[in-house]
Amino acid sequence: MADSIDNFTPSPGGNNFPQDFSLESVEIVTDFGQSFNVRSQVIELDFFEDLYSFVISGYVILKDAVGIVEKFKLDGNEFIKIQYGKAKDESDISKLERTFRLYKVGNRNPIGNQNAEYITLYFCNEILLLSEQVKISKSYVGKKIATASNNSGIINNILLQQLKVSPDKINDIEETYGTYDFIVPRLKPLEAISWLSTYARPAGNKLGADMLFFETKDGFSFRSLQSLLSADIYSTYKYQIKNTDLDNQSFGEGMITVLDYEVVKTYDSLESTSTGAYANRLLTIDPMTKSYKVTNFNYGKYSQKVDTMNENPVIAPSTNRLGIKQTEAYDSRLKVAIGNSNQTSVNYIKERQGSTAKDVFLETAIPNRTAQLALANYTVIKITIPGDSSITVGRTIDFNLYSLQIDDTRKLDDYFSGTYLITALRHVIQTNGSYQTILELAKESVNVTYVQPDNTSVDYRREING
User: 449-452: long-range contacts (C-beta < 8 A, 24 or more apart)?
Assistant: First the structure.
């Protein structure tokens, strides 16, 4: 039975105002069998999801006047149970009810005459700690990296058998293409999943190797960026002049109005060149056949083959003073890897059964993944919206930002409006009465095409040649 530090009344929650919330319970469970509800002490709860992080995490700030660390004998073996949502009603399907590992005590800052202090407690999914404690040394022969149905994939095995993740905590595993022979060389489980992701190619004729492993409030997912980008739009959000007459602003309008926004990253041609987003080159060497292969990635050709969130590519490539296009400067990012794609063409090897491993298709995986991960975060913005406990990373949204150009019509910004992928989010509940969700959004394409440069003009040639 859970004890309470003192009596409290949970926030009522409801749908009266966009930032309503219901923080039902924040309960610490100790390793000696006791539990304590510290909801009345909560000042702020922050909850994080990230497309490029393996697990969800967060922290809670408490106002402590009873010596929580000493009283509960906190030593890193505790758990924290959290229940929150938009409404207290049991019908709130977006409500989060999860248990996390309480892994760290953060800052402790005294208040006033030192009869109380603010204390920060950090939590994460238990498997993050478990993955740091074990290693996998296992061979997988003729296996898909991930399977959607029968759990025979390598990543399925790591989750279910090595980490003992409950099947109901697995949300969406996307099928991968091809079968492989892999030996996991004594890696931590999550480290092994990250390594395997670099080889994983999505099924369904999707180009490249853009698979990501991440966790949302709904469970673990292994998805390709391409499938995420083509998903249905979750909602449309708009940033506009604040409505000063709040009484006339409907609840529905409040839910889709952006409270604040920040442009985090626009184009960075130097970074995109050096990371291989526009062009890159892979050199694969096969020591057995004493051969090599060169594979070039060209963004111009790639953008014509794949589906994107918005209609147009992020650049109209120009040429440098040497006459080389941005999308053809392959040496801007050079990678070297040991491959085996040529082995089956050598008769001496082909005629000896079992003498060669399955092709790992490095020439498909590495050049495309190098560019795809860079392009996925080509444009990044942050928006703050009224708290929404249903939203998760991996969803797509439309963001309408009005142009700053003076015009008779309210025109949308050509390049920053459009469809975005939610790559990270932060739920912030402040118990003084505020619930907001901060979304980090990214996109790899634009709505309005860029003007094709005239690289032969006298003015351009004069400037490019210095």
Answer: 449/311, 449/312, 449/313, 449/316, 450/312, 450/313, 450/314, 450/315, 450/316, 451/316, 452/316
pLDDT in tens, 200-246: 999 988 888 999 999 999 999 999 999 999 999 999 999 876 544 44
418 in the Ramachandran plot: left (φ > 0), alpha (ψ -120 to 50) or beta?
Answer: left
Look up the pTM and report it: 0.90
Which residue(s) pair with 176 in the sheet? 202
Chain center to CA of 448: 26
Within 8 A by CB and 6+ apart from 108, the residues are 69, 117, 118, 119, 120
Region of 65 (left: φ > 0; alpha: ψ -120 to 50; beta: rest) is alpha
User: Which two three-digit tokens encode residue 178?
Assistant: 């091809």
Pairwise CA distance, residues 435 & 28, whole Å: 22
Instruction: Answer yes or no: are the C-beta atoms of 74 and 66 closer than 8 Å.
Output: no
Rounded Cα gap, residues 331 and 194, in angstroms: 26
For every residue of 157-185, DSSP letters joined together read HIIIIIS---GGGEEEE--BSS-EEEEEE
The CA distance from 332 to 298, in Å, is 12
Residue 94 to residue 91: CA distance in whole angstroms: 9
> Which letter does DSSP use for residue 450 in this model?
P
Q: Which residue has the higher pLDDT, 1 or 382?
A: 382
Q: Going by DSSP bridges, is the β-strand pair 219-224/379-386 parallel, antiparallel, or unpaired?
A: unpaired
Q: How far lies 434's CA from each of 21, 23, 92, in Å? A: 8, 11, 18
Q: Are strands 22-29 and 35-37 parallel, antiparallel or unpaired?
A: antiparallel
Other residues' Cβ atoms within 10 Å of the Cβ of residue 283: 13
Token output for 106: 């953060």
